[in-house]
Fold:
Amino acid sequence: MKKEIAKQYATALVEITSEAKGKELEKRIEIFVKYLHEHRHLDGIDQIFEAMEGVWKKKYGMSKICVETAYSLSKKQEQTLQAIAPKADFNQQISQDLIGGARIRIDDQIIDGTIYGSLLTLKKLLTQTLSV
Structure:
């Protein structure tokens, strides 16, 4: 399947599923898959799913947010983060070796606000200063 066709299907899938939930979402996806089957494009489903991330990101600004913290976020913190990007796939990971703070990954960008990250930055800075 050509990239442009996969992108067109991905755009259609994002559009038909963006407001649907639960059973309605399942029904729309089922209809979409049947359509692909009838038009002999089901073998390109992997390419369509790959193209979806780009389409989703273009439409909503971001597709995936992963927050890594030393401890679980409170419900209020979690709700605040989800309110910033309500259409993004939100994921939380707990890594006790971070000590404190948070590392946030938004698609391919990483924002490191952890104590561990700050200590590594300080170590680099001191090493560079002392070697001069």
The beta strands are 64-69, 89-94, 101-106, 109-114. The longest helix spans residues 22-38. The chain has two domains: 3-60, 64-131.
